[in-house]
Amino acid sequence: DAGVIQSPRHEVTEMGQEVTLRCKPISGHNSLFWYRQTMMRGLELLIYFNNNVPIDDSGMPEDRFSAKMPNASFSTLKIQPSEPRDSAVYFCASTKNYGYTFGSGTRLTVV
Amino acid sequence: AQKVTQAQTEISVVEKEDVTLDCVYETRDTTYYLFWYKQPPSGELVFPIRRNSFDEQNEISGRYSWNFQKSTSSFNFTITASQVVDSAVYFCALSELDNFNKFYFGSGTKLNVKP
Asked: Which of B23, B28, B41, B54 could form a disulfide with B92 if both were Cys (CB 3.0 to 4.6 A apart)?
């Protein structure tokens, strides 16, 4: 089992640019979660999907953020346009019954 | 409302000391799971080092032990004879069984184990 795979591991972009983070959940897991981790706020749940359907996106900070899950094996988190305050580590996690398995995270730096 | 509180922001101990990380939770659910996640300096979030259903009691696994007290809504984590490799940020988390396994994380406790 390859685990939850996130790409890229690191992303540095200029303010105003579009950023797309990608996640491949563990095969057979039916729930997928996007988290953001910062020093100030800790781990924040942004959005989660169940069976590819967005269930709760109340954690998405602004309309600049959007997430999709076109199929059971792929999800994206897009920020457009990006801002310096979006700099954080973004984690994707998947689960089937209980206990998340997290990806390695994407460290985003917006300059 | 569901909430997980880790009052200890950072703890420093000397190797071989015992250390307890506190976790207090709030939930209206009668069925739920509690977890401790470890985030080493590498930044990755390690799969839960313990899960506990609402009706389990204490558990010991090597140097690690977990004390679940439903009466006080606490789920504390103790490391006995700490080691430098235990240095990490530890997150306590609450999972609702009836809400697609949505997790609520505490703010984390940074543990520094000095040689």
From this structure: B23
Q: What are the tens digits of pLDDT across the range B18-60?
A: 999 999 999 888 788 888 999 998 888 887 777 777 777 777 8
Residue B85 in tokens: 């490799």
Tell me the C-alpha to C-alpha distance, in Å, between residue B44 and each of A104, B37, B40, B41. 5, 10, 7, 8
- Interface probe for B, chosen from A38, A100, A101 (most Cβ of B below 10 Å), is A100
Instruction: Quick: pLDDT tens for A31-59.
Output: 999 999 988 888 889 999 999 999 989 89
Q: Which helix (H) or strand (E) holds B104?
A: strand B103-105
Contact B21, B76 (CB under 8 A): yes
